[in-house]
Amino acid sequence: DTEVTQTPKHLVMGMTNKKSLKCEQHMGHRAMYWYKQKAKKPPELMFVYSYEKLSINESVPSRFSPECPNSSLLNLHLHALQPEDSALYLCASSQPPRGRSYNEQFFGPGTRLTVL
Amino acid sequence: GNSVTQMEGPVTLSEEAFLTINCTYTATGYPSLFWYVQYPGEGLQLLLKATKADDKGSNKGFEATYRKETTSFHLEKGSVQVSDSAVYFCALKFDMGTGFQKLVFGTGTRLLVSP
Q1: What is the pLDDT along chain A (116 residues), one digit of tens a residue?
Q2: Cα–Cα 20 to 30 A to A67, which of A8, B16, B58, B94?
Q3: Inter-chain CB proximity B43 and A55 less than 8 Å
Q4: Inter-chain Cβ pairs, chain A and chain B, closer than 8 A
């Protein structure tokens, strides 16, 4: 199984809602990533988890709260979002980096989020 | 800093035409370079990679050569197909100094291939 799955595929929420995005992989990868991709823009890294611990937070606002409950799952909890947070949220996984060797990141299809 | 510059799109070609998508980079040290492809409604897929100068990455008829002297990693394909229509991202990977390596993407180039 070389697949990263993400649910839901689409999400529409109001600015006062609380919702969660879910990502799952069964490749035995121990590094998982959240990216944000605005329309016609490249993906931008938000968070990195390694061995279920938050390792990198790219100065993301606290209205985005990541969680890694086990080695296969990664969640992104959303609260009090703004319309400018509307974007495609991509999850990826890889083996943790070792030295200079590259461990390919496998991307999921993304969740398209619209904040009204 | 570390950055990637790609040619603006869209690139519109007829089937069987030759494809070049330009990519240049700025980086400290010696980054690894990648091309990712994103088909409509999907996530990113790694297309090819090169980890050091003069390396040539290739996959599915696509090729790119890591040129340190021109800081370039141009994507080429001899004969495109309609199924190649997608957005192509050039990216580099650099060491964040934390044991983690970060991918930095270019802005993407949309390729449209007509029959």
Answers
A1: 668 999 999 999 999 999 999 999 999 898 899 999 998 888 999 999 988 999 888 889 999 999 999 999 999 999 999 999 999 999 999 886 665 555 778 899 999 999 99
A2: B94
A3: no
A4: 50
